[in-house]
Fold each of these.
Amino acid sequence: MSAVKVTIVGAGSVVFSLGLVKDLCLTEGLKGSSVHFMDINEERLDVVYRLAQRYAEDLGANLTFARSLDRSEALADADFVINTATVTHNEYFMKRRRELTAEHGYFYARTGMPEYHNLQMMLDVARDVEAISPNAWILLAGNPVFDGTTLMGRETDVKVCGLCHGHYGYRGVARLIGLEPEKVTWQAPGLNHNIWLTHFHYEGQDAYPILDQWIAENIEQYWDDHKESGVPAQWSRSAIHQYRMFGLLPIGDTPRRGGWWYHTDLETRVRWYGAGGGGDTPEGRDRILKGKEEKYAQMKAAAYDAEVRPITLFGDIKTTEQHVPIIDALVNDNEYRAQVNVLNHGALPGLPDDVAVEVPAVVNRMGIQPLRVEPLPAKVMLECIYPEWLRMEQGLEALLTGDKSMMLYGILQSHQTRSYEQAMAMLEALFDIEPNEPMAYIEDIHDHYHWPQF
């Protein structure tokens, strides 16, 4: 057994943080470990701290807890830093941004403008870890995982691994077509939110013919049966259309993306994603955010009510998140098969070594060891992987150079942009968006970004 210090940055994501606490409590080899919660929201920090202490009591776990508003303090002596913080994914900012972009003629904030707030925060955290606890692992949970893992891996010497759970989409595929997920052997490599089911075997046999038969015989009826309630993105018309286009099934969050033609307006979204257009619409996202707000209100009430026990809210069965099993594998040599985002170094053919790829990996005391996978089909690389790689590089270049024209270029390339003037107005509006607390992560935005000097 090995006791470690785990620092959770952005711990105010209460449900996710408590899931990590539960997994730590239920992992025998991590007894005696400490968890240090860090957030800039004092109320949320207090809620997760209080619930975590009582949760450990409920599970009879030997863990200690600390909390801090100061990042440097929380990072001191850390062995693992789980960064779940996001600057622009909080309830207020997402809604305000959607409303603002809609005013300028963009549906669901699809402006093409590169990410910058979250990436700068990720880089700041990584640089702090490099200075304060240089031997610590960063396990990145906040989006964008692809861009952030690449950025931190290139710009610092910190050990970085990005994690997501979209790959579990293969389980839903297996269940719906009548297969037991535990008997499936699979691979779904690519880039985060851009992964493709290259291997799909059931009890040693290729399961793609089973999938094809099920689609041919059942998919239209399935869509009709769920006409009112909606379908998961994994089984949407968009997902099946992408499968027919590319010859591989897109997995997890991949079907939610696809090409711009799936997302031009609400009517188009309904056509490809079913009732209401799915979760990636203003109404769909408002439902999700409302659910988060209600869940947080429940957690807040429970935190200050000694009669409510966390075990009744969260149970005593481990989550499917990979963070704690990876920690256990690294420190206790309990080998674990994971799906990770790490710098390529030859794991996925066709991409440079310093681009983060999502691939299977073996994790043990030797480290996180990505497995080399077979090349993706040329069509998938040309139409899906390379364009996403280019988009990422443009965003990182804009961030690192402060070149405002590169931010504008992203908007100009959006298929919803109709004029240069519209793009300019959108750019300036996003730079001047009404500030809110999480923006405190980023200082002097206007000083950092500038127009090229000639």
Amino acid sequence: MESPRTDQWRTTAAWVRSRVQAHHEWFAQSLPMIASENLISPLSRELLASDFHDRYAEGHPGKRYYQGCRYIDEVELRCEELARTLFRADYADVRPISGTTANLGVLFALTKPGDTISVVNVAHGAHISSADFGAVGVRGLHRVEYPFDLQKMIVDVDGARKVIRDAKPKVAWFGQSVFLFPTPIDQLQDAFEEVGCAVVYDAAHVLGLIAGGQFQDPLRQGAHVVNGSTHKTLPGPQHGLVVAKPRDDKMRRKLDFGMFPGVLSNHHLHSMAALAVSLAEFLEFGEAYAQMVVRNAQVLGSALHSRGVKVLCAEHGFTKSHTLALDVAANGGGADRVEALEQANIIANKNLLPWDDPKKAMHPSGIRLGSQELTRLGMGPAQMEEVAQLIARVIVDHEDPAVVRTDVATLRRDFQSIHYCFTPDVAAYRYHKLVP
């Protein structure tokens, strides 16, 4: 006879499962527009629940500290090959379990505590990894920041060149979480060579756009290392990736050691397998997908602007990535408007703008939007016009979100399948049924 306590835990487990199911049902009726999220393909998702999840594989294929890795080794080697092919890289490490872990591993490899690193300021859109309270701080590095062009939302080239020459950083680090336009690293090559620094490009947000040939090509523009997460514009599992053109074997060995044993023990083998499928899918569909992501973002930016929403960089075409930055200070502020958008089932995030007080991160002026997930669901420019109208009704008109929510569900009804992937019967996979 089971005890009442056993029944309590069974009830708890059932409740957790019901909450996950409720989440899927909610998102099936929503417009997911968080710029750092995406949808994994049905085939990749299947591998996340495989026995690879339960295993250990410390070390390299063929040189493991554990037995039982025969097929794991085969998959990992193929995953590395796919990453090198996709990014035209000489080196690939598919073990990082997240973008931040990839950042930590690269920092562990190329720097020592007390070294100087040049970075983008978090207030200017950089990821928290480059802050004192992030990975850079964990490594004990001295930060110097590039001047930033607030009109163009990019690093100021002349100012960055001076910072690099004056500070002589061990590593020049680039990359942003609000990443509207390519970083002009090709124009800084003379400064890199003069001081002899390693150049690292955190491509977490734009990794898929780079792979699809739609943003910039850091490894051909002066970067030695490109790293990031694999679940944003690259629609794979929550995982990390490092690809590189190491300047010598010493850098290659350091990168390898920095990841293991530097910041990893076992890596997540199930997500590595899912990543291999995602990379193969991107080699097939990535260019078309990346083109549509950027096109959709630009159409959405223009449509929002025409409806009275203040979209940054209107004079520069709004964006060349998947991301749009909105200034909604005059409409109630970022925190207020994202809450209203969520009530309308439009999922976005509040975001600091460069002129905001960083101490008020929970009450910023801005909102960040991404086009990558709606694109993955098969939406195109025509739907972006409709999405802009729905967003403007909430932000500008302050319409009752409950009324807007009905129209959001109507739009979303015909966009439930995941596109740009291998599954032949993809239409049979409904978003809310991907997890049983």
Amino acid sequence: MGSIGFIGAGNMAEALIGGVVKKGLYDPSKIVVYDISEDRLILLQETYNVICAKDSRQLLQEVPAVVLAVKPSVLPSVVDELKTQLKDKLVISIAAGISIDFIMNVLGRDARVVRVMPNTPALVGEGASALAASITCSDSDMACARDIFSAVGMCLEMKEGLLNAVTALSGSGPAFAFLFIEALADGGVRSGLPRDKALALAAATLKGAAAMVAQTGIQPGKLKDMVTSPAGTTIEGISVLESRGFRSAVIDAVFAAYRRACDLTR
């Protein structure tokens, strides 16, 4: 077990720290964190017993690998400021839209960089992350990054060119799912259910449906047919969704998010 650093102590960093501590991947004494917010540092120290650095430079003196958990707008200046200290580290970035090539242009072509696209369900241990790495990364570098993000959900390795599509699907997807849950609950309220009961049922229904897809390996269309009885209630609802262009609207939403992610990438 080595040590790991986190520059940035926001919600995603906290989720990752909580995940690796719970899984026993890192002892809290081997996790070093820095953030400009002293309140966030105090919270993480009191909650997880991690080590708090006085600044980023001190942090980088103590760890061989660092997760850059800062906002995309901030990451370029952080990388530039710390380029001398970062060039010999495994650098793991979760900043959307910042390419591996961008970071390597600052740190040098021999830098070891992993780019990861996590999503917000990582906050409850149900994340879906995808990672890509520079050709300079070793198998152990990849294993380090993969283990960290697998601690808060599933983690897939893929080519960096696909990460904008990942951003659109699993990055933006939770917001689309939240919208659907809200709409399901509204439908339940319209049909007479109390708001709290409708929301609980809607959330559990979507969670259960997702688990059936993930655990059975059966195509969603076949699972849909299992619920849809002839002349029953479900086919009536599906016919309304189809008449309103439900599937095409979702497809177009993901593709629109993908095009925006491409526009923002540098």
